[in-house]
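Risk register update: the risk of archive-format incompatibility is retired. Evidence:
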Amino acid sequence: MRPVTFDETAVALEAINLSVTLRRSRDGADIPAVNGVSFTLYRGRTLGIVGESGCGKSTTAMSLLRLLPRTARIAGQIRFRGEDLLAASEERLRAIRGRYISMIFQDPMVALDPLFTIGDQLAEPLRIHCGLEGDALRARQVELLAAVGISTPETRLTQYPHQMSGGMLQRIVGAIAMSCNPDVLIADEPTTALDPRAQASYLDLLKMFGETYGLALVMVTHDMGVVARVCDDVLVMYAGQAVEKGPVRQIFNAPKHPYTRALLTSIPNGEVEREWLPTIAGQPPDLSRLPPGCSFAPRCSAAQERCSREAQIERVVGDRHRARCWRAVAP
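Archived output:
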């Protein structure tokens, strides 16, 4: 694969006021899983979407390719190359998925079919989207497995998923996602099943693809350490909303939302001796019964009276840095 030149400021994908409502039974309330999330993904950069379980990270990622179940209602815009993907036909989406926008799912054992060999599953997108067959297809398969660090790739092509470790399967899923040189790669908790050493190696591999080939990467994670290692920009989500977003350095050095500060404080630090690791008090709210005002107010030690009555709109607090908090001010 030959590295390509790219303009880092070029927009690869844009979400505008994205909302996802999960419809329940007639006697149950609908769930606003994602509420008015907007972000811009630039070519050659990595956007981290971070937050506690249930905050809407994976739902946001899945909605970008309209992979949510039929009970989900998606509103807003998802713009790719000037086209709104929410208005695209299913036929058009099939042409885009895997070719221009790919996704790495959380569990490779679920993402890969146990009845087909690695070669069969790696060949499918190459045949459909790139028209490869014969020797050209075989050469591309070997090239991809070697690129993600799989030893003896010719042998691995004939094997089945159960014959490989979790780390190898994660790399193979990455090779399939990268097979057609997509413009955008969405990685949903791609290192969950990996040990720390394998996780670091895999993250470096994804970062290398982004920097070398101009890939725009969306990294969904609950780990702020992963964000610090890989991402250029970060979107912090809580209760379906983007509560803070901006460049990683700005947010790590000067977080403006109490929830972001709480997440950063909860990161283990080997240089500081602690008997107990700091945690965030309370529990995330029930999305079907969100409290008035700021959703984080019941857990926030800095909450004011107005926080429980009135929700803050997103405000500019720095260069490309925005936060939803009454106390958030520009430096």
